[in-house]
Amino acid sequence: MTGSVRDPLLQVRDLTHHYGRHLGCRDVSFDLHPGEILGIVGESGSGKTTLLKCVSGQLQPTDGSVSYRTRDLGPVDVYGMSEARRRLLMRTDWGIVYQNARDGLRMKVSAGANVGERLMAIGDRHYGHIRSEAVDWLERVEMDMGRIDDMPGTFSGGMQQRLQIARNLVTKPRLVFMDEPTSGLDVSVQARLLDLIRGLVGSLGIACIVVTHDLGVVRLLSHRLMVMKGGQVVEHGLTDQVLDDPQHPYTQLLVSSILPV
Amino acid sequence: MTTVIPHPNASVATSAAPAGLAGYNFAYLDEQTKRMIRRALLKAVAIPGYQVPFGSREMPLPYGWGTGGIQVTAAVIGPDDVLKVIDQGADDTTNAVSIRRFFAKTAGVATTDRTVDATVIQTRHRIPEVPLTENQILVYQVPIPEPLRQLEPREAETRKMHALEEYGVMHVSLYEDIAKFGRITRSYNYPVRVNGRYVMAPSPIPKFDNPKMDRMPALQLFGAGREKRIYAVPPYTDVKSLDFEDHPFEIETWEEDCSLCGAQDSYLDEVIVDDKGTKMYVCSDSDYCRERREAGHQGDGGPK
Ligand SMILES: Nc1ncnc2c1ncn2[C@@H]1O[C@H](COP(=O)(O)OP(=O)(O)OP(=O)(O)O)[C@@H](O)[C@H]1O
Ligand SMILES: [Mg+2]
Ligand SMILES: [Zn+2]
After folding, report:
1. Å from CA of B88 to ligand 3 middle
2. Is B283 a catalytic residue?
3. Which residue in chain A is spatially nearest to B163 when comparing CA positions?
4. What is the DSSP letter of B278?
5. Is the confidence metric ipTM above 0.95 for this complex?
6. CB–CB of A113 and B168 under 8 A?
7. Distance of residue B169 Cα from the nearest chain A Cα, in angstroms
8. Structural domain includes residue A121
9. Helix (H, G, I), strand (E, B) or coil at B208
10. pLDDT score at B23
């Protein structure tokens, strides 16, 4: 038995990262449960991306630990496992959606190939099956099927983000990391993308960590919220509680500055 | 470490050039360099399909003229070897002729056009039609050794992908072919998996030749001069062309037979025979075609 739904999927303990002598983030600890969506907010340079990279296996932290409850072996230290296993985990049971689609997509191959890549990476050798999965996932992210053979560069920013999401979800991951998935998009596109993300992760029960500087995004998406400042978590709680009754002066400032008039 | 002093009467033919060719070391390269290349070759043979870096030397030919293949040939050839060099299947193209002359001059080895008489065959673009034997070595000139390069330009990343057997992107490129054209259109340098492990670029041979690599009795060595890589397929090693279950690997076929020798099983080149654009099909392997004709086989002579 590799744990019940009540056991955390991810456990982060005392995570600290320094870039040389420069602080990235410090002493961050939290648990994430299956299906749970955690928002991370904070001003520019507060350490959000650093934390996300450390937690998602992309950047080895200077200190602290990240443990993930794998399907077969239960909780495993993400940086203790072999690189081969970590990379396999990252492209099967995890997903990573980047702010810049160019970091998350293969720009030189079609939309269909982008969605099919993970399947091929885990050994799917049936073209017809890969193709039908690609069709299915493009539909689920509400993309025009007629564009399955088009290059990602010909898509709008919002479509590229949808494609990134489809590309990640095709292996049915249990955990998806997103760094500013909607920033840079115009407001109406943002709203539709957020709706889509919320619908998909909700119906599939995917756990998510979403980094954003936009409190609107976390209010819509996340169950829990962590507020960062200067590399540290200054407040952490249920999203509604933190936003409606902020305790830390920095959070109070943050909330008051975006409150609609 | 030993220093090799070229001697006109040297009995160890691998150290000095044949008499009359003073000034060259046997097969041009110095012994130190040949040892370095042999070490790389041994490693390559031990890990089939794995690209071994080597200290490629400046050769008296520009890159693109087979400097990688020449260095490999120079490192394995001995005075009793018989060398054949082919380019596009033919022995008489400029590149083939100059490489053959180079070794005739620097190693004094016998050369031949006949596949069956050769012990070392250096090739660009083709594998001979006659099945090779355990007594032969096939040396390929390779322009681009990295099969993942097209989809992953970062060298450090391709190395990691090989190390971790992350070959999904190879199928991504085949998927693209099928999505665009309804079938896998790649016809040259068609990627293979060697010994169930490393994915390898077979150099720009037509995919027609891929099945010949599979469990070939001859040792296959690959040299890429500009990219400084050597790799190998030892005798009787599995070499499988990548494909999909529902789009299996297939080789080219022709409606026509060879106009000269009537062969139905060989790779055919299209030849324009007049200024009206009349076409004729002939074996690309010129030795194979000639041998067949000498044995009495005949084609229809092409368009009259
Ligand atoms: N590669 C790096 N080398 C050195 N310092 C870095 C590096 N990346 C980030 N930092 C520093 O670490 C701190 C945290 O940066 P990080 O990118 O995690 O912040 P962030 O909260 O994601 O900011 P933003 O909202 O602007 O994306 C900053 O002071 C930043 O300058
Ligand atoms: Mg950031
Ligand atoms: Zn012929």
Report:
1. 14
2. yes
3. A84
4. -
5. no
6. no
7. 7
8. yes
9. helix
10. 63
Ligand nearest to the CA of A25: 1
Q: How far is CA A158 from CA A98, A161, B222, in A?
A: 12, 5, 46
Cα-to-centroid distance, A91 and ligand 1 (Å): 25
- Centre of ligand 3 to C-alpha B142, Å, is 26
Name the token pair of B269: 């080149």
pLDDT, residue B61, reads: 77
Distance, in Å, from the CA atom of B171 to the CA atom of B180, rounded to the nearest integer, reads 14
Alpha-carbon dihedral angle through residues A17, A21, A22, A24, given to the nearest 10 degrees: 0
Per the listing, tokens 């037979």 go with: B257
The segments of chain A whose pLDDT lies below 70 read 1-5, 258-261
Between B215 and B7, residue with greater pLDDT: B215
- Contacts of residue B217, defined as CB under 8 A and 6 or more positions apart, other chains included, come to B131, B132, B133, B134, B235, B236
Q: How many domains does chain A have?
A: 1
**Single-letter residue type at A174:** R
Tell whether A233 is covered by a domain: no
A106 and B172 within 8 Å at the Cβ level: the answer is yes
Q: Which of B69, B89, B225, B258 does the annotation list as catalytic?
A: B258
Backbone phi, psi, residue A149, to 5°: -100, 10
Of these residues, B49, B68, B69, B223, which one is catalytic? B49
Asked, for residue A153, whether it belongs to a domain, the answer is yes
Q: What mean pLDDT do residues B155-160 have?
A: 94
Indicate yes or no: CB of B151 within 8 angstroms of CB of A118: no
B238: left (phi over 0), alpha (psi -120 to 50) or beta: beta
Task: Looking at the CA of residue A180, tell me the nearest atom of ligand 1.
Answer: 27
Set B69, B89, B223, B289: catalytic member: B289
Look at residue B203 in the predicted model and tell me its pLDDT. Answer: 86
Residue B22 predicted with pLDDT over 90: no
Domain region containing A119: 107-172
Average pLDDT value over all residues in chain A? 94
The per-residue pLDDT for range B161-201, each reduced to its tens digit, is 999 999 999 999 999 999 999 999 999 999 999 999 999 99
pLDDT at B89: 87
- Which site among B172, B181, B193, B243 would you substitute to test the A interface, given the most A Cβ atoms closer than 10 Å to its Cβ? B172
Inter-chain CB pairs, A–B, below 8 Å: 58
Evaluate whether residue A206 is within a structural domain.
no
How long a stretch of residues is chain A?
261
Residue A113 confidence (pLDDT): 98
Is-contact B145 B192, C-beta < 8 A?
Answer: no
Residue B9 predicted with pLDDT over 70: no
